[in-house]
Write a structure and sequence with these properties.
mainly alpha; 0% strand
Length: 92
């Protein structure tokens, strides 16, 4: 049986990044992993994933969930380090 760890190993995303997409899109992590991997292959996909994480940070801050916002900021930081093409204004 294929596990989420197996799926994660086949994507270019970390478990935290997959979880962030799952939370943002209200999907199961497996579905989110597949969707995010598809997005990452699209022209503006990395920016879309980055935007999802940023929106989740905004939501956490709006709800005064500082621990969640901090965790998501770490996820965003790692995502940008792994995928610099996700930053707007960076030539592809």
């Amino acid at each position: 049986m294929i596990t989420l760890d197996d799926i994660e190993d086949m994507t270019c995303l970390t478990r935290d990044q997959i979880t962030a997409v799952a939370d943002h899109e209200h999907l199961a992590e497996l579905s989110a992993a597949l969707m995010a991997e598809y997005l990452m292959q699209q022209h503006s996909g990395p920016q879309a994933v980055q935007q999802m994480i940023c929106e989740d940070i905004q939501t956490a801050l709006h709800e005064a969930d500082i621990d969640r916002a901090r965790a998501l900021f770490g996820t965003l930081r790692q995502f940008v380090l792994d995928h610099p093409e996700a930053v707007r204004g960076v030539p592809e």
